[in-house]
Amino acid sequence: MNAKEIPGGICAPLGFTAAGTACGIKPGGLDISILAADERCSAAGTFTTNAFKAAPVRLTEEHLKKDGFLQAVVANSGNANAWTGEQGMEDARAMAVMAAEFIGAHPWDVAVASTGEIGVYLPMQRVSKGISDAASRLNREGGGDAALAIMTTDTRSKELAWDLGGFAMGGMAKGSGMIRPDMATMLAFITTDAEVEPAQLGQALRSAVDASFNLITIDGCTSTNDMVLVLASGASGVSLEGKEIEKHLFRACSHLSRLVVEDGEGATRFIVVRVHQAADGEEARRAALAVAESSLVKTAVFGGDPNWGRVIQALGASLEDADSMGVSVDIAGLRVAENGKPAEVDGKKLNKAMAGKEVELDINLGRGESEVEVWTCDLSYGYVKINTEYHT
Amino acid sequence: MNAKEIPGGICAPLGFTAAGTACGIKPGGLDISILAADERCSAAGTFTTNAFKAAPVRLTEEHLKKDGFLQAVVANSGNANAWTGEQGMEDARAMAVMAAEFIGAHPWDVAVASTGEIGVYLPMQRVSKGISDAASRLNREGGGDAALAIMTTDTRSKELAWDLGGFAMGGMAKGSGMIRPDMATMLAFITTDAEVEPAQLGQALRSAVDASFNLITIDGCTSTNDMVLVLASGASGVSLEGKEIEKHLFRACSHLSRLVVEDGEGATRFIVVRVHQAADGEEARRAALAVAESSLVKTAVFGGDPNWGRVIQALGASLEDADSMGVSVDIAGLRVAENGKPAEVDGKKLNKAMAGKEVELDINLGRGESEVEVWTCDLSYGYVKINTEYHT
Fold first, then answer.
1. pTM (predicted TM-score)
2. Which of B176, B117, B77 is nearest to B383 (CA)?
3. What value of ipTM does the predicted structure carry?
4. Which of A147, A258, A296, A308 places its Cα 20 to 30 Å from the Cα of B281?
């Protein structure tokens, strides 16, 4: 399964064009993005589990349920169109209708996504101008601008484009804060020119997202606007079964989720938390996320401090019962705690490992077969600064 | 139920002496504390639910289970004696034995508490010297020193002493980080000279703690060492039923938990989160804690930003289902969101309310009768600084 990196982002697969433009929803920077396919595409999505789903999330779910096909995605940054009542639903619907008109598609075949401040109505005059402008610029080189136009506190755009031998896969994502996906994630859009039947594509996407986006966390906060969409144009003529596309989708989702965590708000270090030998998958996931979301663990890593007592604290708080016998913690492959006692460890080596850009925490619960790997980042002054000064 | 403030802290009630001393467990400051009663006292405790309970927690639970009486508490700061295996249990037991010997009590009647770094063996020679020194200084004016000797990242000691008409109540607590009590809390010790039967005292303490310490959070991290103990000497000759002592214990626990949150690591603002009309108590608690533990809500409050969209996000993520109709959010009594839409609000008034030392968030779910009030503090640069530089 060799993937060759190619240019083009979401437009790398055959059959897609894109564009990004600025219409003044947020001060400075591009804020409207359109991804359009030449024909209707087999499509699938996963969506936030937040009870207060934003209007575009509800609309896109509705559109996807119709027959599992989409032809375009229109997205804006700077305004989440969440907690905006009936007006919000009308605005989301209007975005789909406008985009559909410009590209000659049916409104039902347009997905809408928004990200930014919650509880503010969309400035629809600007949005309308933006959609018209973006639609007029759609082209096969537009992937880069589209990826820029979905950014909020992101410091860089997040793209991928792979030649997979006979067919291609492209993707873009945004996300930096309010990241603790649950059955879904921030915004990510993946394209392919392989041909996959919608139901199989949906199943493959859910599996891939569960094993990637759903295992990252930046601040434990599940957004109202999370959405991952995949569109398969079939233009390459290569036809894939669900299991085949799943492995490619998993790699694409992993790649994009790593980019999201690396660009976590204020992040200075990437943290890998692995839980081994848990009683079951649910326990593994709960324990790993508890460690990954601990403010104390995250500030220790920011300080380069191998303070494994905080890992033990987070672990113990997440487990209903646990015998410390059989439990061990390794930092960067160095055993620091086992069987309820500190382990003898070379302090110099440990401090050196903590000074790196990536810190690995391996936790063995010693009571089962399940394991999981979760990605997160440290908690720095930068996180506080960004979220104190930025009005989400 | 008028309480008159009096001096004396935990020694204000008749029958108690205390002392605090420095023995070098932590650099600078007092670090060993003893609270001793003239006679065996009816006693009760609540303890952390962390699966990796520290040795002193396990020992004290064991001692209390015997017959519900205690005569002394020996506590140290700077070292949690947690994740220290059999050696840790032996050390905790040795602390009880030493204290018992000095004050002429049975070791079974001595409670032990520790707070500080996890995963480090206690320096028992120093501890032994400290216990001997503290025991020699026990006196009725020792409450202040005892309260100082249990501090870690606390910036001030936390005490209370009330004349309740015929009998008195005293208390001390420590706690500033790793605070998200669950059926228990950081360290808090309460004394009274009322006479209460142990089983009734236990029931009253559990109710009081559930409605106070268990509803505060600083960083969502449940410690391995949380413990609340109450000792009732009966020396006043006033005898109370469980229901009568419960209301006093609730007030004492509330008072101490407020002091803990006010001194939260890096805290600049006190936040009150109230959830009204929840379907049941569990939902009210889950929703309120989700808002109180949201890094995004806490950084917004630090920045004085009335960013209620983050309250909506945290609320929605905590609820399995919710209809935004009927849901409202008020900041400082000003309605900012209702029925799935932003409310019209006087921005000037709102900004002024956010600039105060205390911010009140009132959330109405509009679908039941349950309500709860949770206390927390903001997330500032100070929290990151303290936890980056301090080796817990």
1. 0.85
2. B176
3. 0.81
4. A296
